[in-house]
Design brief:
Layout: E1 21-27, E2 34-40, E3 46-52, H1 55-64, E4 71-73
Parallel strand pairs: 1-4
Antiparallel strand pairs: 1-2, 2-3
Amino acid sequence: MGIFIKKKTSIPLVEYNPEKERPVLKCSICNGEQIAGFKDKQTGHFTEVILIRNGQDLDEFMEMYDLSSVTKEY
């Protein structure tokens, strides 16, 4: 029995419209932080979905929204 219990985080369900939005992985040049989400094609508004800590998080994000690829933005 441990004092620290690691909770399983789940990806919050955000509505994704492929006609209006595109999947984007925002990457920080300074610290390497990556955030997966969706960017509106017309306004450029970015909706954050999940912080990517490892490859498993990215795979889970892509599987949940049935994506084949995600573009990176810096």
